[in-house]
Structures are given as structure tokens and as C-alpha cells.
Amino acid sequence: MKTIDRRSFIKTLGKAGIGSLLAVTGTRESTALTSVNQFAEEKRVPTRPFGKTGIQVAMLGFGCSQDLNSKHLLLKQAIKMGVTYWDTAHTYNNSEEAIGNYFKKYPKDRKKVFLVTKSRSSDPARMTRSLETSLQRMRCDYVDMFFVHSVSDVKEELTKATKVWAEKEKKKGRIRLFGFSTHKNMEQCLSAAAKLGWVDGIMTSYNYRLMNSDSMKKACDACAKEGIGLVAMKTQAPFFAKVFADIGKEDITAQSLTAQFIKKGFTVEQAKLKAVWENQQITSICSEMTNMTLLKANVAASMGKPKLSGLEKTLFDLHASQTASYYCTGCAEYCEPEMACDVPISDVMRCLMYAHEYEETERAMNILRQMSPDILNRLAVADFTPAEMACPKKMPISILINEVVKILA
Ligand code: SF4
Q1: One domain for residues 277 and 380
Q2: Domain range spanning residue 167?
Q3: CA of 399 to the centre of ligand 1 (A)
Q4: 169 neighbors 124 (Cβ within 8 angstroms)
Q5: Residue nearest atom 8 of ligand 1, based on CA coordinates
Q6: Higher-confidence position of 267 and 55
Q7: With a 6 A CB cut-off, is 398 part of the ligand 1 pocket?
Q8: Per the confidence metrics, is the pTM higher than 0.90?
Q9: What is the pLDDT of residues 164-220, one digit of tens each?
Q10: Helix 397-408 to helix 6-15 angle, to the nearest 10 degrees?
């Protein structure tokens, strides 16, 4: 079995020219500039039409996968600034209860919000149970969008029974729209959904690293043609500051990007949002804004100007291609079937990103535990060589999985 240790891998990157990269920024928290913040205070987030539904939705959505019980003020401010697309899920800890408590306190705000929740399953009986629990928790009698959570195979998961259930619930008035979220095999999921003809919306991983592949462009075009509303998540694809710090060299591309954006008055994190909004097919961005600073920074970014220049888009593209072998694009159809045992490699890679780049170790651990209680043991003994050979990004899967085991053990 071919093994490469972390140091050798980093040396290899150095020889390949990527070793000259040392990210100068990478934190998810935006530190918005004061003038831009003040601008955001006075304005409301613009809206875009949600596919062919005719519903206008805020370009910036509030990600509710966080402890919201002590954050009613933040929710109130989000509404004031027009951040009225709220995304939660049956499995987001106490998020739905917290939203319910908020609506109990401010009942008039329910109608101002485009409320989204998700079910772990596409099985009709389980979706019914999930929806009823969510409605009860959130003290509502309907949600605006009901997603099946984390779909990776549309043909397998969105069955005829799922369609019948969605139509029935729409008639009952308990859901307005139906769709799914995906961060695995996204391009295939989007393309397959466009052929179904009954999906209203999709929330997909989408960022400056994912948006430029031909398959993603085609998938978005297919959805747009069918009038499916698209919401982007995972828009803050990292610069891998910590990994590249090991190399001890400079990341010229990241430095140029940062300098360029600061000159124009916004941060790299705001620029990453702008890069996504450049695509008019994206209705909204779902962002987990945990405090007022981040909320204001993202609201400011949603305002019309300044836009990204051609040079800035090129720098983003360049950085994405220079660091491609660090970023898992969720194309699990290549690597996972090659494994002798059942390991959800792309999901584990996502957990590594949460733990390593975003410093959200507990979140990563929770997701891993949901996969299976003995996942870390299984990861520790699995042979990832065949998966590595199949990975089109040439990701050093064994090394990265070792990182996961080390960080989360
Ligand atoms: S490890 Fe490679 S093949 Fe597997 S999902 Fe990630 S990028 Fe795709």
C-alpha cells in the first residue's frame, strides 16, 4: 500500500508550486468595514424571484443551525434588515424550538419570514412525522419550503411516493413548496431534479471553488430552465490557511485577493458571497450568521456595489485551481464505490473542513456520530488507496482522514 505522510505531502505540494501558498486570511467571521456596515444598517437585503414560483426571496438567508434561544435580538435585527429567508432542520439541535419561542414572542413576524425546514428522510410516513414535529416546535401551521435533507441520489431518494406526499401536503396547506438540500454529487442531483418536473427548489453547496466546472454550470442551467429556485450554501470555501502555514511560504494569490478587496472596501468573506451572487440563477445564499457583526457584514455584501472585477474573478479561479487537491467537491460517485468497506468519504471530508478550517469541532463530531457510533474506529483501519486513485482532484484522502481521526479522537 502506498502511503504518504503529512510532511511528505506538504513537500510534494511545495515542489508543485503550491508550496508558495500561505493563506493570509481564512476565518469565516467577516470583519466588515465601518462605512459598509453603516450602509447596511440603512438598507434592506435585495430580493430575487425563487425559480418559477413567483415568490420574491431575500438574497441572503439566515442559517439556523446554531443555538438561537439567546439570540432573539439577532433574529429581530435580521428581519429588520430584510434577511427573511430562514433555514432550519428537524435535526438542528434546538433550533426549531428557539424559532417557535421567537414566533410566540413576535407572532406578526411569522408572515414576514420565508421559513424552511428539512426532513432526514424522503419516506412519506417519516416526512409526515418530521413535518408535524417541526410545525409543533415552531408554533406554525405551515412552512414555506420543505426540503429532504442531504440528498445524494435523486433517483433513489425522490420517489413517486415522495412526489405524491409533497402534492398532498401542498393541498393541505402545510407546505408551500418542496425540494431538497445536497452537498454530495450535487451536479448529478441538480440535473436529475431538473428532469423530474415537480421540484420547486434546491439548496446546494456552491462557491468559488465549485461554480466553474462545466458540470455545475450545466446543472444550474438545467434547473434555471425548469424554474427550480436555487439556494447556495457552503459559500465560504476556505483558503486553507492552517494547512499552508505548515509550508512556511507565502500565498501570493490569497494576498493579492485580500489586498484587492480591502482596497475596494470589503473583505474576502464578503467577496466570496459576491462571487456567488454574480450568478443570477442563485436566488439566495444561506449563511450561518452567529452574531450582529457577521449579519451586518453579509447584509452589506448583498448591496449592489462594489461588484467583483474581472481580475478578482480570475484571482478566485486561480486560487481554486492552485489549491484544488485540498478541497473535496463532494463527487462521491468516484471515490466511495472503490472502498472495500462502507465509508462516506465526502461527508467525512466535510467534517474535516468544519473542524480544521472553521474550528467547529463539536459540529463535526455530531455529524460523524450520526453516521455511526464507531465511525472513527472504522476510519482508522480503512485502506483509502483505491479511493485516492479514483479521486479526480487527487486528494490525499488517507492523510486527510488521519487528520480527522487525530482531531476528533
Ligand atoms: S475525496 Fe475526491 S472523489 Fe471523493 S468526493 Fe472528495 S473530491 Fe470527490
Answers
A1: no
A2: 34-236+265-306
A3: 13
A4: no
A5: 331
A6: 55
A7: no
A8: no
A9: 999 999 999 999 999 999 999 999 999 999 999 999 999 999 999 999 999 999 999
A10: 130
